[in-house]
Amino acid sequence: MNESLPLFYIARHSETAWSLDGRHTGLTDLPLTDHGEQNARKLGARLQGMSFAKVFTSPLQRAKRTCELAGFGNVATIDNDLVEWDYGEYEGKRSPEIRANWPDWELFRDGCPGGESPHQISERADRVLNRVRAIDGDVLVFTSGHISRVLAAQWIGIDLWPIGKLLMLGTASLSALGYDRDRSRPALHLWNETHHLD
Fold first, then answer.
1. Residues forming beta bridges with residue 142, ordered by sequence position
2. Would you name the residues annotated as active-site residues?
3. 5-26: string of b/e by CB count within 10 Å (b at 16+)?
4. Which of 58, 66, 52, 56 is nearest to 15 (CA)?
5. Per-residue pLDDT for 71 more than 80?
6. How far apart are CA 88 and CA 15, in angstroms?
7. Percent helix, strand, coil in the chain (nearest 5)?
8. In what order do the strands lie in the sheet with 8-12?
9. Greater confidence, 40 or 184?
10. Please, which residues bridge with residue 77 across strands?
11. 10-26 pLDDT tens trace
12. Cβ(146)–Cβ(167) under 8 Å?
């Protein structure tokens, strides 16, 4: 990894009751669990000593609290485009419940009735990436799991379907997007790092 090139770090929010339960949590504003708060502090320990030109966070409390406990609450800027996918009618449901009525449903291909389409969330991710690319230096964002996968797909220029479903992310994980050595193309540098939670 060429340290002179900027990196875009993505921290997924820590554990909530619904992430633990496998429920689609879009705009429902849930707090972290006690275990989630502990893991957010561990994420902070992982990030200790790193410096960022800019830090952004989703306005949802699970991301904001993770950001605060990780030690960046006083420098973070709220970015409304970092909220999780709007799941519409599927908010609070688990994938098996959804597939009981729509057996071949795939979020990254089909989106959600009454919520966002893959095209809509990709446009939102592009707005985030345009802001990140304009910053001179490393950037850190605190956000949610599915929007993080969309950010990665848009960064490296790969169609959201089917890559989105293959980019698994744990809570309180850290990922990093950047460039190859001569900055001729975007690259994925780190994905779903969770060893700090062990």
1. 11, 57
2. 13, 84
3. ebbbbbbbbbbbebbeeebbbb
4. 66
5. yes
6. 22
7. 40, 15, 40
8. 76-78, 54-57, 139-143, 8-12, 174-179, 186-193
9. 40
10. 56
11. 999 999 999 999 999 99
12. no
CA 189 to chain centre: 15
Tokens describing residue 2: 């060429």
Q: How far is CA 62 from the centre of its chain?
A: 12
State pTM to two decimals. 0.96
Q: 147 vs 24, 42, 75, 152, CA distance in Å?
A: 12, 22, 22, 9
DSSP 8-state assignment for residue 183: S
Q: Please write the tens of the pLDDT for every residue from 165-178.
A: 999 999 999 999 99
Count of residues for the chain? 198
pLDDT-derived band at 1 (thresholds 50, 70, 90) equals very low
Query: What residue ranges define each of the domains in the chain, with the CATH number in brackets?
Result: 8-197 (3.40.50.1240)
Q: Cα(90)–Cα(103) distance, rounded to whole angstroms? A: 14
Q: Please report which confidence band the pLDDT of residue 127 belongs to, taking 50, 70 and 90 as the band edges.
A: very high
3-class DSSP state for residue 79? coil
How is 26-91 classified by DSSP, letter by letter?
A: SS--PPBPHHHHHHHHHHHHHHTT---SEEEE-SSHHHHHHHHHTT-TTTEEE-GGGSPP--GGGT
